[in-house]
Write a structure and sequence with these properties.
CATH superfamily of the largest domain: P-loop containing nucleotide triphosphate hydrolases
Radius of gyration: 22 Å
Number of domains: 2
Distance between the termini: 20 Å
Bound molecules: guanosine-5'-triphosphate, magnesium ion
Structural class: alpha/beta
Shape: globular
CATH architecture of the largest domain: 3-Layer(aba) Sandwich
CATH class of the largest domain: Alpha Beta
Helix content: 40-55%
Number of helices: 15
Mean pLDDT: 84
Number of strands: 7
Length: 337
């Protein structure tokens, strides 16, 4: 079968097979399931970096610099750009490609942009499959770049080992824009564009926010045990100029020191717990949703029309019909439909 043949090529390092498997996993739950079965056992070696921040803060520029550094260290890196500002035409995606061009043909680098199909959880189930596939391919690092708005940054934090949040000078005035959540979803703050006025002010504002945050009760934490993580790790704040590369080696040292923290203090177990709990939720949601869609589709299930008629004629109520359909969803899941 096709997937098996691709997997065989993938295992000997064929990049086209890598690309193709990613597309298959992105496009279909069933293929994703088969691919995971083949490739998941090969994973667990990649270190995952998340990079979030508002549009235009320099995430792609920074990613490019980190990619260069990783490759210079003799290691391999996969990049996932989630929801570039304009996914299908011109703009950001093209920009991303141009900025990342130095590395584009390099065998040790693989870059993939993906649109986040408006899924509930922000970062799609598919993104997690792409991580699995890249990890199995043997990348030492996987960098996930995503615009830090709403759910996606929380989702990245729940998946990555180390999450960087980018800010730029001038954002300081609306420091309130840092929702309470951002403190809990950052391992490291990067003040990019340090060549612009106000970089030091920005650093100070973040530091004082961190001071404040340490006093906030830990019970608000969205992540199990993350209170413990947060207590023993105060996110450093690093100034950089991602365009010219200033501060990048220092930033890398901070990342490595967070990596050391993660790997040495049982933090990894907490991260894994959250990460795979989220992944299971994504898979289950999608699995159930597919089945529910089928049962509500008159082409797949003509009797749904009678059920709805019964509701419109007030012979049944929506809850009783939903209960009946729910049982059918579970039956069809049990039959492996
Ligand atoms: N002055 C200055 N400009 C920078 C720096 N880093 C990046 N830029 C510029 O900021 C602009 C946006 O950079 P990107 O890397 O595309 O930002 P992004 O966060 O990836 O943007 P989106 O993916 O669209 O959200 C580009 O014009 C960069 O050249 C910096 O350190 N200083
Ligand atoms: Mg970008």
């Amino acid at each position: 079968m096709e997937i098996q043949a691709l997997v065989d090529k993938f295992k000997v390092g064929n990049r086209r097979a890598l690309s193709r498997l990613i597309s298959l996993a992105e496009n279909g739950f069933k293929d994703a399931r088969l691919i995971s079965k083949e490739l998941f056992p090969l994973t667990g070696n990649a270190y995952i970096l998340g990079i979030t921040g508002a549009p235009g803060t320099g995430k792609s520029t920074l990613t490019n610099k980190l990619v260069q550094l990783i490759v210079e260290n003799g290691e391999r890196v996969g990049v996932i750009a989630i929801d570039p500002t304009s996914p299908f035409s011109g703009g950001a995606l093209l920009g991303d490609r141009i900025r990342m061009k130095d590395n584009y043909t390099n065998q040790n680098v693989f870059i993939r942009s993906m649109a986040n199909r408006g899924r509930l959880g922000g970062m799609a189930r598919a993104t997690k499959d792409v991580i699995t596939i890249m990890d199995a391919f043997g990348f030492d690092y996987i960098i996930i770049e995503t615009v830090g708005v709403g759910q996606s940054e929380v989702d990245v934090y729940g998946t990555a080992h180390t999450t960087l949040v980018l800010v730029v000078p001038g954002m300081g005035d609306d420091i309130q824009a840092f929702k309470a959540g951002i403190m809990e979803t950052s391992d490291l703050f990067v003040v990019n564009k340090m060549d612009l006025d106000g970089a030091n002010k920005m650093v100070m504002e973040i530091e004082s926010m961190l001071d404040l945050n340490q006093k906030v009760e830990v019970s608000r934490s969205k992540y199990e045990n993350s209170a413990m993580e947060q207590q023993s790790w105060r996110p450093p704040v690093q100034k950089v100029n991602a365009r010219r590369g200033n501060g990048i080696p220092a930033l890398w040292e901070q990342i490595m020191s967070h990596r050391h923290h993660v790997e040495s203090k049982g933090v990894l177990e907490c991260k894994q717990l959250n990460r795979f709990k989220n992944e299971l939720l994504d898979i289950l949601e999608e699995r159930f949703k597919l089945q529910i869609d089928q049962i509500l589709d008159p082409k797949e299930n003509p009797s749904i029309l009678e059920d709805i008629r019964a509701i419109t004629e007030r012979k049944a109520n929506p809850y009783s019909i939903a209960e009946k359909l729910g049982k059918r969803v579970i039956e069809s899941l049990e039959n492996g439909a």
